[in-house]
Design brief:
about 350 residues, alpha+beta, two-stranded antiparallel ribbon, binds cytidine-5'-triphosphate, binds manganese (II) ion
């Protein structure tokens, strides 16, 4: 870690896209606490407070040293009173009573479980909580609940999906995706994005961006890939969303807007033969060979036109906070609009904006 004198707090940017951040987090005990607070505010649909804690977490992840005294955070951006109070508590007591309160809160605990199910967000969690449900087990046991196709799959493969995806699993799935795509489009570019592209060695899903260099586009590619996996028995779930991109359409100014690419939220069956134990030789253990030899893995596939690929790559690489700050930076510091499709000069959109203002 750097010594303090080499570090000038007032030079730290409020935008995460202007800060260097490695996977080395010297302030995990603080950032974990902030992420709990942010999540709780997300569950309460308080976007302002949620973002305040996410920004603080992002900022502390970028510091090249561990914060040990209040003096260490002097002059830093993104540290409001709420954040400062929690840092102070953790420095003095080793933990924060406010964070512990959240961690023990019945509503937080229930929402945390519910939102860990694929297809379940804050709205559904709220509904289930109001019905008196508190755990995923209770949700599974309740046969009267109306579930979406996505939520049914989420519950069916729950245990596999909550156990994180490893780098080795990401590499294995990557091979499958590349091989399948290339049987239909040999020149296609398939890139792993999301957390794994940021160098993380675990994730909740595996994200891929697919494009075909040159002018040729194939609207059927995604369908062909999915159909083949269905035939091979590798597809446990899939939800294809067709492209809604319109060239004349204005970029969205929302902070967390969905993009318009054709995409697919899927669950793949990844076979992983169990490593044979040398002790596994009794007939009883041979019968055990019938045990499940695969794991359900969440995979996102996104298809982009070649000319939009750089912007899509930037957006889908994340992190979410990096993307938010990139767009905020573009808007506030450059008077431009960035989204997953392109970078737009606001001055050239002046007529459209007059329209928006009305
Ligand atoms: N993203 C996006 N548009 C979407 C969905 C996601 O631009 N419609 C971006 C997110 O902002 C994120 C990245 O794509 O930066 C990957 O999303 P996600 O898989 O949710 O997050 P990861 O960073 O990969 O983390 P995890 O391991 O939890 O999957
Ligand atoms: Mn991901
Ligand atoms: Mn995720
Ligand atoms: Mn994803």
């Amino acid at each position: 870690a750097l010594e303090m004198p080499a570090f000038i707090a007032t030079k730290v940017s409020q935008y995460s896209c202007q800060r260097k951040t490695t996977l080395n987090n010297y302030n995990k005990k603080f950032t974990d606490a902030f992420e709990v607070m942010a999540e709780n505010y997300e569950f309460k649909e308080n976007e302002i407070f949620c973002l305040e804690f996410l920004r603080a977490a992002s900022l502390l992840k970028s510091l090249p040293f561990s914060v040990t005294r209040m003096k260490d955070i002097q002059g830093l951006p993104c540290v409001g009173d709420q954040v400062r109070d929690i840092i102070e508590e953790i420095i003095e007591e080793g933990e924060s009573s406010r964070v512990n309160e959240v961690l023990n809160d019945e509503r937080y605990k229930a929402f945390k479980q519910f939102t860990s199910v694929f297809g379940v967000g804050v709205k559904t969690s709220e509904k289930w909580y109001r019905m008196g449900l508190r755990t995923v087990e209770e949700v599974k046991a309740d046969k009267t609940l109306k579930l979406s196709k996505m939520q049914k799959a989420g519950l069916l493969y729950y245990e596999d999906l909550v156990s994180c995806v490893s780098k080795a699993e990401a590499d294995a799935v990557s091979l499958i995706v590349k091989n399948t795509v290339c049987t239909f489009l040999p020149d296609a570019l398939v890139t792993i994005t999301g957390g794994f592209r940021r160098g993380k060695n675990i994730g909740h899903d595996i994200d891929f961006l697919i494009t075909n260099p040159g002018p040729r586009e194939d609207d059927e590619l995604l369908h062909k890939v999915i159909d083949l996996w269905k035939k091979q028995g590798l597809l446990l779930y899939c939800d294809i969303i067709e492209s809604t991109f319109v060239k004349e359409q204005l970029p969205s100014r929302k902070v967390d807007a969905m993009d318009h690419f054709q995409k697919c939220f899927a669950i793949l069956k990844l076979y992983q033969p169990r490593v044979d134990n040398s002790t596994c030789n009794t007939s009883e253990q041979l019968e055990m060979a019938e045990v499940k030899d695969w794991k359900a893995i969440r995979v996102d596939l996104v298809i982009t036109p070649f000319e939009q690929y750089p912007y899509a790559l930037l957006g889908w690489t994340g992190s979410r906070q990096f993307g938010r700050d990139l767009r905020r930076y573009a808007a506030h510091e450059r008077k431009m609009i960035l989204d997953n499709h392109g970078l737009y000069d606001r001055r050239k959109l002046i007529n459209h904006f007059e329209y928006i203002v009305q």
